[in-house]
Amino acid sequence: MAPNPPLNLSYPFDGRWQVRNSPANRVPSHGTALFGLSYAIDFVPVDDDGRSAPFTLGSLFRSEAPEAFTGFGRPVLSPVDGVVVGVHDIEADHHAYRGFPSVGYARTQRRRAAEGWLALIGNHVLIETGYRTGTAVVALCHLKQGSAEVTTGQRVASGQPIGRCGNSGNSTEPHLHLHAVDGRYITQAHAIPIQFDGSIPHNGTIVERR
Questions:
Q1: If you write DSSP's letter for every residue of 81-110 in order, what string do you get?
Q2: pTM of the predicted model, to two decimals?
Q3: Where are the domains of the chain?
Q4: Quick one: CATH architecture of 7-209?
Q5: What are the protein's GO molecular function terms (predicted)?
Q6: How far is CA 78 from CA 28, 96, 98, 122, in A?
Q7: Fewest CB atoms within 10 Å of the CB: 31, 131, 133, 139?
Q8: How far is residue 120 CA from its own chain's centroid?
Q9: Which helix (H) or strand (E) holds 40?
């Protein structure tokens, strides 16, 4: 059976963001097909030097407040025209983990996965949009606590602000996780390939939008 064609999206941000865990490099991009994650992609906000935050000696040994990162609180935009079918933004933004603290944090990932979908994606907005003969649901995840700017049932346009970049859920530093599935019930849905403005960027690419 031929694979589904990609869902074409607009980039869900302005400014400079670096691509991580891209399906252009491997599928499943995040090492699992659970929860429709096969074609998921991460975007990390960076400064003019390509850094998410200065890396100091303290970064090597201690966790860091999310406010220390250049992209914490940056606006996140809808990548499609559609209808909001899910909003959750009550989870706290936890500290970021780089250097040695990231090793300890990685060891707790299995526990978060066992706790289910919400423990992994944290605060999020789900947007339903047209796809082939049916619909697709685009998930924008790890949003900042209390930052949702939309409500369930609301129609949104591509480029409209829907929340802000945060560090909730299974996240080592503030970033945006995005993936698309074929239904509203995320735990039962199947992954849909995605592309942005007709292509999918590789890991390490810095996307700049103005």
A1: SEEEEEEE--SPP--B--STHHHHHHTTHH
A2: 0.93
A3: 7-209
A4: Distorted Sandwich (2.70)
A5: metalloendopeptidase activity
A6: 24, 25, 29, 18
A7: 133
A8: 11
A9: none
